[in-house]
């Protein structure tokens, strides 16, 4: 929603409620909605809560409030009406056209930016694949959701640190060391190195089913690594170097960036201090030989810090990591973009932190409790048409990307064989299709990946949005003139389809804020689909006699007004795609 007019409505609504119903308490800004039918106005306020509290007719309350609002806001930009139990707010079309389009034409991609995050630090942890294993499809959602959230919060003025926290420690590296010693000597790691390392990992488990002593060898090998044995450390460093090079190549394909990268091993020298702190606070106890923190929550087991043999666990690392991040960044929020399967783990870690800070009597300003959040998401599911290499139970992300790029290239060859830079555009659209498939649904829902839907140029997909942007750029090239920042004739944009596009453009700043507030890139995806669909109605509009009502015509004044609208849509679609992590091709 447009921040300025929504704020105006909220402030005037608060005054009207205070005047008419002084005993009623309600957060007006949170209750404001958007009418499903845009002809009903820009915003709507339901009166059900007030009516229930006062035991009065909601329609009568809406009528009363609309009258008071029109008096209070007589000199403002909004006009009010009652429609049943709703108070609707409308904005004069010419005023909204001039204000919105001039803001976009003058601001360009800065449109929608805000300073609400100034002075606030946000950490976003995302992706975090495992070393010595291929980048699987299972890490895709974390990677693209986190990357999008990083961009969204940056747009709003926050100081954002995107963190990649790869899994580079644990007993699996003992298994990798043993597998390398037994079967890795003749491997050529010049190509497909990570896949070959994963082959070793899979082979270890197959052989360990037949020879149980391999697991004891792996335990000894990991102990050597923990003790700093040179040969074990050298192998581990080799595994890390190979893996990070491969991960960085995948991130480059996806256009994903990080500000800080450190693995689990970084916290090795920080866990003892964290455990000692919890023990000093009187929070630890021994249970069946293990060191735990009791959580006083019947839905959760105790948080296990150390096994009976003294080994630390994943929870120990995350608790130590939380303390490290808080001391280093003193963040406003720290977000963990991790799948829903880890929900209980994060609940445990956050409860331990809360108990620690309460035991230490820290003030609200000194506490991270409430600032750390698990941004969970659902699973990725594939239909029967999935075509990519499988190794073990992993679907390689690069195989998915390559298949998408291949299918896009084939469609480009069919539809536009003379397109320049076909390979570049096929890569942009193919990767965009894969990314958008994960961001076009609410993050907590599972995603069904179906090729025909993902790559549809006409459905609600990434290629559809990118094609819309390319069409807008084509119109701008055909126009070939500079557009003034000041809109000379906003009154010429008087068709309902044009006015609807303008209203949607005015909503962009508020949509970005909503996406940040709910940690939900899908809101931007939905917005871009709605904007593109609305613009395509303008593009395809017919005159009364059935002829195409062309955007560029012999009427230069009308054409300039319409092309100003086209340029504004292009700017917002491009910026919206950027916030999602998609490229915006100028031709397709």
The structural class is: alpha/beta
Rg, Cα atoms, Å: 28 Å
- Classified by CATH, the class of the largest domain is Mainly Alpha
How many independent structural domains? 4
Instruction: Please give the largest β-sheet.
Output: 5 strands, parallel
What would CATH call the homologous superfamily of the largest domain? Isoleucyl-tRNA Synthetase, Domain 1
State the CATH architecture of the largest domain: Orthogonal Bundle
Terminal residue distance: 31 Å
Number of strands: 15
Give the averaged pLDDT, no decimals: 91
Q: What does the overall shape look like?
A: flat
The number of helical elements comes to 20
Strand order of the largest sheet: 6-5-4-10-11
List keywords for this structure.
alpha/beta, 3-stranded antiparallel beta sheet, 10% strand, 5-stranded parallel beta sheet, 20 helices, 53% helix, 588 residues, Gyrase A, domain 2, flat, 15 strands, Rossmann fold, 4 domains
Give a written overview of the molecule.
The strands form five sheets. The chain has a five-stranded parallel beta sheet with strand order 6-5-4-10-11, with helices on both faces. The chain has 20 helices and 15 strands. The model is unreliable at 384-392 (pLDDT under 50). The protein has helices at 3-20, 28-31, 48-54, 58-72, 93-107, 140-155, 172-183, 193-210, 213-226, 230-254, 271-280, 314-329, 343-359, 397-415, 422-439, 451-454, 462-479, 496-517, 522-539, 556-580, and strands spanning 43-46, 78-83, 86-91, 121-125, 159-164, 260-261, 284-287, 290-293, 303-306, 333-337, 372-375, 380-382, 390-391, 394-395, 447-449. 53% of the residues lie in helices and 10% in strands. It folds into four domains: 3-91, 2-Layer Sandwich (Gyrase A, domain 2); 159-168 and 263-331 and 340-375, 3-Layer(aba) Sandwich (Rossmann fold), CATH 3.40.50; 172-257, no CATH class; 396-580, Isoleucyl-tRNA Synthetase, Domain 1.
């Amino acid at each position: 929603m447009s921040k300025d007019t929504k704020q105006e409505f909220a402030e005037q609504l608060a005054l009207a409620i205070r005047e008419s119903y002084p005993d009623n308490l309600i957060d007006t800004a949170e209750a404001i909605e958007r009418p499903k039918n845009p002809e009903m106005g820009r915003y709507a306020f339901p009166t059900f809560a007030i009516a229930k509290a006062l035991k009065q007719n909601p329609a009568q309350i809406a009528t009363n409030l609309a009258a008071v609002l029109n008096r209070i806001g007589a000199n403002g930009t909004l006009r009010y009406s009652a429609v049943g139990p709703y108070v609707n707010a409308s904005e004069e079309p010419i005023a909204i056209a001039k204000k919105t389009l001039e803001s976009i034409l003058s601001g360009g991609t800065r449109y929608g930016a805000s300073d609400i995050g100034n002075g606030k630090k946000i950490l976003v942890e995302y992706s975090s694949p495992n070393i010595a294993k291929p980048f699987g499809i299972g890490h895709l959602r974390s990677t693209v959701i986190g990357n999008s959230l990083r961009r969204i919060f940056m747009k709003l003025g926050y100081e954002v640190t995107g963190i990649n926290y790869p899994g580079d420690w644990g007993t699996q590296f003992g298994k990798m060391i043993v597998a390398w010693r037994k079967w890795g000597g003749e491997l050529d790691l010049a190509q497909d190195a990570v896949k070959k390392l994963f082959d070793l990992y899979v082979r270890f488990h197959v052989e360990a089913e037949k020879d149980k002593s391999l697991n004891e060898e792996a335990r000894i090998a990991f102990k050597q690594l923990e003790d700093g044995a040179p040969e074990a450390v050298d192998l581990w460093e080799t595994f890390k170097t190979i893996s990070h090079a491969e991960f960085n190549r995948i991130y480059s394909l996806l256009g994903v960036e990080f500000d800080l990268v450190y693995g689990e091993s970084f916290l090795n020298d920080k866990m003892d201090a964290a455990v000692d702190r919890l023990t000093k606070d009187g929070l630890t106890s021994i249970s069946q030989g293990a060191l735990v923190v009791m959580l006083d929550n019947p839905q959760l087991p105790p948080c296990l810090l150390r096994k009976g043999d003294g080994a630390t666990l994943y929870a120990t690392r995350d608790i130590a990591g939380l303390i490290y991040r808080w001391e280093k960044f003193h963040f406003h929020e720290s977000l963990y973009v991790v799948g829903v399967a880890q929900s209980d783990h994060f609940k445990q870690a956050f409860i331990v932190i809360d108990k620690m800070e309460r035991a230490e009597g820290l003030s609200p300003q000194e506490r991270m409790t409430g600032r750390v959040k698990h941004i969970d998401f659902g699973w990725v599911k594939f239909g029967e048409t999935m075509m990519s290499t499988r190794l073990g139970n992993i679907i390689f992300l690069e195989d998915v990307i390559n298949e998408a790029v291949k299918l896009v290239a084939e469609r480009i060859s069919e539809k536009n064989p003379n397109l320049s830079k076909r390979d570049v555009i096929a890569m942009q659209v193919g990767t965009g299709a894969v990314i958008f498939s994960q961001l076009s649904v609410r993050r907590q829902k599972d995603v069904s990946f179906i090729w025909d839907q993902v790559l549809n140029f006409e459905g609600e997909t990434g290629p559809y949005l990118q094609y819309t942007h390319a069409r807008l750029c084509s119109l701008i090239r055909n126009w070939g003139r500079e557009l003034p920042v000041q809109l000379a004739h906003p009154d010429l944009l008087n068709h309902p389809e044009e006015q609807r596009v303008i209203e949607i453009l005015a909503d962009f700043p508020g949509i970005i804020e909503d996406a940040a507030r709910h940690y939900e890139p899908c809101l931007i995806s939905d917005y871009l689909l709605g904007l593109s669909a609305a613009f395509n109605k303008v593009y395809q509009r017919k005159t009364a006699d059935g002829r195409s009502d062309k955007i560029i015509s012999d009427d230069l004044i009308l054409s300039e007004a319409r092309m100003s609208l086209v340029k504004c849509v292009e700017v917002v679609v491009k910026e919206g795609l950027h916030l999602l992590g998609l490229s915006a091709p100028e031709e397709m």
